[in-house]
Amino acid sequence: MNVLLAIPFVVPLLGAAVTLLLRRTPRSQQIVGTLTLAVVVADAALLLRETADGTVVVSQAGGWPAPLGITLVADPMAALLVLVSSVVLLIVLLYAIGQDIGGLSRATPQIFHPIYLVLTAGVCLSFIAGDLFNLFVGFEVMLTASYALITQAPTRARVRASMIYTTISLTSSILFLTGIALVYALTGTVNMADIAEKLGAAPPELRMVLALMFFVVFGIKAAIVPMHFWLPDSYPVALTRISAIFAALLTKVAVYAIVRTQTLLFVRDDISAVLLWAAIATMLVGIFGALVQDDVNRVVSFALVSHIGYMILGLGIGTVAGIAGVIVYLVHHIVVQATLFLVNGLMRQYVGHTSLRAIRGLTTVSPALALFFFLPALSLAGMPPFSGFIAKVALFEAGIAAGGWLVHTGVAVGVLTSLLTLIAVFRIWTRAFWGTPLPDMVEAKEQLRRGANLGGLRFMTAMTGVMVGVGLFVMAAGGPLAEVGFTAARDLVDGDAYIEAVMGEGAG
Amino acid sequence: MAVGVPGEDRPYLAGRIATGDGGPPEDWEAPRERWLSTVTRPAFGPRSVLLEVVARILIPAILTLAVFLLVAGHGRPGGGFAGGLVASMAYVLRYIAGGRHELAAGVPMRPNGLLALGMLIACTTATLPLLFGKPILYATKWEFTLPVFGHVKLLSALFFEAGVFLIVVGLVLSVVAALGARMEAEEEEMRQEQLQRHSRERRTGADGGGGR
């Protein structure tokens, strides 16, 4: 147990140290990075096998008993998310390696590898942290790495975007720390299981303020409307390998933190109306933003904001079925967003930019690219039989079963948003993929073909294909996935198993 | 401590520019005593002998305090993080007094190397207990008696803290290198150019028979 829980964040940190020492030999850096992430994937798979039946795995670091020491916890939800994240991280790393081998990127690899692995450690630690302060540490490790990553290959636009991004993130971090201090003042502990037991006795008004505070803290990071404005300004500007990881993982880690804190620490009824309103606003504002953008990257970024709303909707519904829907949606969304951003990166390689005004007929230029865009795009819009359909149906069913006019409105808006998403992706499809290619696009492709970069480009395309394959696998594994989702959701809504596992037998 | 003769050979860069605007006479900045290990003047501001002397005296004491904090960290205020910060302050002081060459002379390896080494030490000591079936970060205690120190209690956590210490020093130094030293290098380049331009002007002025 101890080993399984330690590996997801210690091994990437070790890998970061080694790649930092090996910065003169890019090839060995690539090997170390890939091996590190492969180990994390294998470990996460074992962890999921261990917890899939609802077992909560606990390790008390240093042997100090909870709530005194650092607690590492993996329940089915955490294990599932560690697995999906590490798979996505591994594929994106391979994509980046392909790009570097082909000499197609301006990133500085000797810095990229260590920081990327530190980011991995931060993401994994956030998922398995058992106390609020360690969650904060995980977040900070992840965010600090992301500050460095977003300015890779600095241009004026990237530096500007990183200023916005860093300022907003630091603001949310300060609020987070303040929230932890308030919780500690109220309960005298930062261990989440311990807080869950003690916070129930706190005055409801105070509890509600704290719940709102944590919602705002993670809401900023998850880009929930009206705290979303920074995301479409910063993500699309970064390098593809980086924006893919940011879009796939960083917002989802924040959603995970919202789910964890709101279900475990706070009573559901406290702020569920706020959650539902925020979900409705997020879905609508995001998708209307996506409909008017001219850059593919920005369309996908706004769609990302919009679809965060679905997960908040599921949390607002708050039943076991609703939260199971959130978990399935998280998995689906991580994979689909990563795929779409990788496809955009390939588009940038082929055409040099991603502006819809000057792209035509990509289907002729690269049929594989068209296929790799088409499948995740339909999945994002929620067309059957893709994973997006499974996730959305799970959420809508939960909503209809739960009742209440606000929940029903949320479901209706969800259906509408999914139709609007279909319009948004078909707008990209008809503009960029159909038609005859523009002359300069054909020329650009010829130039690419003449250059010696073809091997790297092929590898990148293959990795994008693998990511599409992972998406299809999520679809095919929809049944078992939903099962794990339900097991995890029962644990989350109930909370007893988690608290007992952390605090020991005597607790209850 | 002999008083230097004005116009003596000076290894320092660019005394003239710094004193050109009604400041102290130019030989004011001539070195009479080597307080720090390098002789290149920092590009920013005039040389401060006071700062150099203070740095020379304080740095050993600061580093000793840092090691004390590192060792005392278990049970008393201190630890790797606090110790690392104090130690890096010694280097920052040295940098402010002597510039980037001075900093480079005082650090055994590049900041990146320190970071990596510290991370390796910290991660390895954190994971070693896993091999013995203990949870991560588990610490064991050795007690023994040494001739001079007497009864000594050594915790394996000390090695972890040493890793943290190195990480903190490496981090602060890389911040100094990225923000201070690079800017300083650019300024030094500018100063060199300015100096060349000045001397060229002076030469042409002399050749032209004192027209200006």
From TrEMBL, chain A:
The chain crosses the membrane at residues 6-22, 31-48, 77-98, 110-129, 163-186, 206-231, 238-259, 271-292, 299-320, 368-391, 411-434, 455-477. GO terms for cellular component: plasma membrane. It holds the Pfam family Proton_antipo_M. It is found in: Cell membrane; Membrane. It is a multi-pass membrane protein. InterPro entries: CPA3_Na-H_Antiporter_D (IPR050586), NADH_UbQ_OxRdtase (IPR003918), ND/Mrp_TM (IPR001750). It comes from the Bacteria. One of its GO terms (molecular function) is NADH dehydrogenase (ubiquinone) activity. GO terms for biological process: ATP synthesis coupled electron transport. Residues 129-418 form the NADH:quinone oxidoreductase/Mrp antiporter transmembrane domain. Keywords: Cell membrane, Membrane, Transmembrane, Transmembrane helix. Belongs to the CPA3 antiporters (TC 2.A.63) subunit D family. NCBIfam families: PRK12665.1. This is Multicomponent Na+:H+ antiporter subunit D. It comes from Spinactinospora alkalitolerans.
From TrEMBL, chain B:
The keyword Heme does not apply. It is a multi-pass membrane protein. Residues 191-205 have a biased composition (Basic and acidic residues). Belongs to the CPA3 antiporters (TC 2.A.63) subunit B family. Keywords: Cell membrane, Membrane, Transmembrane, Transmembrane helix. Residues 1-27, 189-212 are annotated as: Disordered. It is found in: Cell membrane. It comes from Spinactinospora alkalitolerans. This is Multisubunit Na+/H+ antiporter MnhB subunit. It comes from the Bacteria. The keyword Transmembrane helix applies. PANTHER family: NA(+)/H(+) ANTIPORTER SUBUNIT B, NA(+)_H(+) ANTIPORTER SUBUNIT B. The chain crosses the membrane at residues 49-71, 77-93, 114-137, 157-181. GO terms for cellular component: plasma membrane. The lineage of its organism: Bacteria, Bacillati, Actinomycetota, Actinomycetes, Streptosporangiales. Residues 51-173 form the Na+/H+ antiporter MnhB subunit-related protein domain. It holds the Pfam family MnhB.
